[in-house]
Automatic annotation (TrEMBL):
<protein>
    <submittedName>
        <fullName>SDR family oxidoreductase</fullName>
    </submittedName>
</protein>
<dbReference type="InterPro" id="IPR057326">
    <property type="entry name" value="KR_dom"/>
</dbReference>
<dbReference type="InterPro" id="IPR002347">
    <property type="entry name" value="SDR_fam"/>
</dbReference>
<feature type="domain" description="Ketoreductase">
    <location>
        <begin position="3"/>
        <end position="162"/>
    </location>
</feature>
<keyword id="KW-0560">Oxidoreductase</keyword>
<dbReference type="InterPro" id="IPR020904">
    <property type="entry name" value="Sc_DH/Rdtase_CS"/>
</dbReference>
<dbReference type="GO" id="GO:0016616">
    <property type="term" value="F:oxidoreductase activity, acting on the CH-OH group of donors, NAD or NADP as acceptor"/>
</dbReference>
<dbReference type="InterPro" id="IPR036291">
    <property type="entry name" value="NAD(P)-bd_dom_sf"/>
</dbReference>
<comment type="similarity">
    <text>Belongs to the short-chain dehydrogenases/reductases (SDR) family.</text>
</comment>
<dbReference type="Pfam" id="PF00106">
    <property type="entry name" value="adh_short"/>
</dbReference>
């Protein structure tokens, strides 16, 4: 059996596409999200679906322990769970900032904390963190969201340097506009309408499968090769 892959936020969008892509390559999976039904509906072979809030580090560790017992050590962790709540800094509810920081940053760190020590001890392993182009440049109405994604870029590169001599790889994948339900979390109807107009202006956005293919490409490189960052977006996306 191939290496166990753990995917957070696996119930829809990019996470579900990642699950299908790695399953098609014969990997057993631990799929984590708040809702188990959509993950189970994927009907993927050798998959374990667990309801987990990524802000709960102990719950992540417990789920991983059960998967390791069944499938063996974690070969790859994909930190994909995230939320995008757009708004102006002077009017947005600060509770939305806290939610994004907890899920987008602490959730990633919790996942890393759950697997990194074992990967270092075994001198192998790959952690892929799904960030965003908003982790490389700023956008209107994105201040807090950009802050979380800039953090993902920084922590990924920082830890990559720390564990490079342990032969553990850390990869940042930074998609631009993708066809997912992520925008639906935003509460401002005006911002959502403007974002939709932007997507239409570009003539459409990339599908989650493109992001999954990028993750698979990075993972399938020899362990001695670390694809540090992949940035992908619709060709017509300018910023």
């Amino acid at each position: 059996m191939k290496q166990l892959i753990v995917i957070t936020g696996a119930s829809s969008g990019i996470g579900a596409a990642m699950a299908k892509a790695f399953s098609a390559k014969g990997h057993p999976l631990l799929l984590l999200a708040r809702r188990t039904e959509p993950m189970q509906a994927l009907e993927l072979e050798n998959s374990l679906c667990v309801s987990v809030d990524v802000t709960d580090g102990e719950a992540i560790k417990t789920a991983i322990a059960s998967a390791v017992e069944k499938f063996g050590p974690v070969g790859g962790l994909i930190n994909n769970a995230g939320v995008m709540l757009l708004g102006q800094a002077d009017t947005q509810d600060p509770a939305e900032w806290a939610q994004m920081l907890n899920i987008n940053v602490m959730g990633v760190l919790n996942g890393i904390h759950a697997v990194l020590a074992d990967m270092k001890a075994r001198k192998t392993g790959t952690i892929i963190n799904v960030s965003s182009i908003a982790g490389r440049k700023t956008f209107p109405n994105h201040a807090a969201y950009c802050a979380t994604k800039f953090a993902v870029h920084a922590l990924t590169e920082n830890i990559r340097e720390e564990v490079a001599m342990d032969d553990v790889r850390l990869v940042t994948i930074a998609p631009g506009a993708v066809e997912t339900a992520l925008l639906s979390h935003t509460t401002s109807e005006e911002i959502k309408a403007g974002y939709q107009e932007w997507k239409e202006f570009m003539g459409g956005v990339i599908e989650p499968t493109a992001v999954a293919d990028a993750a698979l490409f990075a993972f399938e490189q020899p362990q001695s090769v670390c694809v540090r960052e992949i940035v992908l977006a619709p060709t017509r996306q300018q910023p």
